[in-house]
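Thought: the user asked what non-specific serine/threonine protein kinase looks like in 3D. I have the sequence; next I should run the structure tool and report back without guessing.
Action: structure_tool
Action Input:
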Amino acid sequence: MGARCGLLGFLLVAVVLLRVRGAHALNQTCDADLEALRAFSDGLEGKDASAGLVGWGAGDGGSCCSWTGVSCDLGRVVGLDLSNRSLRGVISPSVASLGRLAALNLSRNSFRGQAPAGLGLLPGLRVLDLSANALSGTFPPSGGAAGGFPAIEVVNVSFNEFAGPHPAFPGAANLTVLDISGNRFSGSINTTALCGAAQNLTVLRFSGNALSGDVPAGFSRCEALSELSLDGNGLAGSLPGDLYTMPELQRLSLQDNNLSGDLDNLGNLSQLVQIDLSYNKFTGFIPDVFGRLRKLESLNLATNGFNGTLPGSLSSCPMLTVVSIRNNSLSGEITLNFTLLPRLNTFDAGSNRLSGNIPPGLARCTELKTLNLAKNKLDGEIPESFKNLSSLLYLSLTGNGFTNLSSALQVLQDLPKLTSLVLTNNFHGEEMMPMDGIKGFKSMEVLVLANCALTGTIPPWLQTLENLSVLDISWNKLHGNIPPWLGSLNNLFYIDLSNNSFTGELPESFTRMKGLISSNGSSERASTEYIPLFIKKNSTGKGLQYNQASSFPASLSLSNNLLAGPVLPGFGHLVKLHVLDLSWNNFSGRIPDELSDMSSLEKLKLAHNDLSGSIPSSLTKLNFLSDFDVSYNNLTGDIPTGGQFLTFANEGFLGNPALCLLRNASCSEKARVVEAAHRKKSKASLAAVGVGTAVGVIFVLWITYVILARVVRSRMHECNPKAVANAEDSSSGSANSSLVLLFQNNKDLSIEDILKSTNHFDQAYIVGCGGFGLVYKSTLPDGRRVAIKRLSGDYSQIEREFQAEVETLSRAQHENLVLLQGYCKIGNDRLLIYSYMENGSLDYWLHERTDSGALLDWQKRLRIAQGSARGLAYLHMSCEPHILHRDIKSSNILLDENFEAHLADFGLARLVCAYDTHVTTDVVGTLGYIPPEYAQSPIATYKGDIYSFGIVLLELLTGRRPVDMCRPKGSRDVVSWVLQMRKEDRETEVFHPNVHDKANEGELLRVLEIACLCVTAAPKSRPMSQQLVTWLDDIAENRSLIIQ
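Observation:
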């Protein structure tokens, strides 16, 4: 849309300038015009602001018609086009003195402040393009007379920061294009004003604002309207009947609102070319009316509540290129006559309930590039006719019941352009991975055959896939050695062979993989940005989601196999590798020092092997390492204490009897004494020392067991007896099916109640995605509502995260924290049961709701800041042991029915032990909230939490997200923008209009001062959390504030 908008504006400006530009018959410019342009130039900021503008500021003898961007007619300035010139400052009011100006284009610069009030008084102004700047205030500006602009034809003020009611231009009879997309205009849409005088209005773009209410009746009075874009607002309700009577409407974009109802009258819009109603709440059947929409090219109804079958009349739209009906509840067979859809480019029907076979006629769509049928109930074989899909780039059939993998590969191998093939979770019941007969896939970049229960070895035909970048054949039953040629594929940078039965040693070729030594060059020719590509990480079907091959983290995932031999020192050459997972194998020998050269490494997993020796201290050089696990090996000596090792909890080191887990001086001294003793004593002495150590360890473990048993018994005395009985019964059958339920205040709650209250975790009950899992809303039998977090991940990682969160939250009880009410284990699932927060997250109210300005006033925002600070202070100073949150952000601040703040998702933070004052988790924080010092040494600290809290304060004050790439350069990062505005003594301009007024300006400025202290670059200069509580309470009580 932005590209269309920019092109249209450019063409219209060009047409106007060609019509009004003279041949410079007169070299002299009107003195008033010359002075106006000089005043405009003087208002530009920065040294040599007009250096790239030929003629500006030079001695020109009184003429400006040859200046860059200036067009004249008979000596008068009629056009000014300075678009995309990196200009900044305030648009000088002198521009409105150019009395003959017909076209003004200042788009794609960094102008701020209000638009000149006098623009509406220019009698001949026909084209106005101020798009992609940082202009604010109302538009047209106050004092500019909304009824002005008598000659205006094109107005484009998109992607600025204008607010207030949307402009209507009731006196502009010639208006044809109005684009106000990407601003902060709010309130309802006034069709009476829009369609009153402007009978020739053809393009209306209101996308990405804060408009609310219903889509009003009255658009039908804009009889010439061909494009209506209202997407990305907060519009609700059903569509008005007269919307379906617009004779010229070609493009209708209403996606990403809260619209509902049916579309029964859609067939009346016979001129429609494009319709996008995705991400709304439409329900019922998709109407079978497309036989009347013969010009339709693009249909997007994704992510709604449609059910029933696919309407057969879609086959009557010969111009269709895109059909997206993903993420609905459509059922039945795919019965479209694809022979009648020769131009079809994209067909996305993923995440529905479609059944039956793939219709062979789909292959008649020879221009088809993207086909997504994932997560349905389809079965049978891939049709032989698919050989004819010569343009196909992307094919995902994940999560169906397809059979005959060998036939499928033989059918698809000769497709010349196929780059991504995802067949995860199909072909169950078959035995062998096809070993021969496959010679094609010359363009293949992404190949996923995970979780298909395949046996055999890695097929040799894979070595012919020269462009392969991503290979996932995890969760199968493959065996044998890993062939050396796999490491010789030049573009391969993501390999997942985990959860198979591979044996032997790792091939040396894995240490020379070009895709992991230099940046991979995977292309993105499939152009499937909006179609999720799922990589299944376990047999339950949960996994990670990537949208492009380039989004995959460079990885070697070889866990849960039978591999042996040493960890290759040559891995140190893989400087682009992010994840190395060799856990749950039989590797032996030492951990190579050379691994410290893997400068991009984020995760190193070596647990459950037979490694020996010490942990190399050189690994402390890995500044990006956030996940380190060497548990259950035979490692000895001290744990390194530098760099990221200060942040790792003991869980990653357990199961190494001779490894010193206490990272302090006395422990180090003990280690040196033991080491000296080892050198001097005989084997018999060594045995005695070993026996003594073992006895001591057993004694300590016994004492620990007794203490923990008492604690568990004291907490379990109110557990549901039925649930505990079920757990005992199930544990006798399988460890994976065991159940443990803790629910301190609900004696009668059973696991059946939990399953029933979420309809067995139906996706309709999902209310969010919290840390490490989905969150479901549940209503218990007694009517109380709770939130249930269903953790996801592989089994071992789930166990650690589950235990960490439960143990941490059981110690943290405060009115400004989200209360953990219980937990349970169902098979491989771990569930955490929280108090339900009626009003959702602060992020939702600040950045998603369109009416948040009216409902989330300054007093509520201040109270939210106070409550969040109290919760943080409790974690930092009162909770025993002290806890770092590690991921403070607005989406982790939940609001109850009274808008009281509660901190969430702190349970995965590591406990701060007496000997370790720094804590971290596997997650390194969230973009925009991460303190700057983490770039050099990403060690989480209390002052890091304070920085993140300061970002939240800035969100409350400004209404902006921490980082917004849609804004012009210089204002995308809220911290840099606010600090620059303070430097220019323009603090009051940063406050969101909905909270800023003279009555509370003093409080706003004080909170802004606190926020700036929190986000200062020097961690030592940031306040403590208890200081924040005191200061914010002082502001709320209207006492004088002294920050010291």
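Thought: the tool returned a structure. Summarizing for the user.
Final Answer: Structure for non-specific serine/threonine protein kinase predicted. Residues 683-716 form the longest helix (34 residues). The domain at 842-1036 is CATH 1.10.510.10 (Transferase(Phosphotransferase); domain 1).
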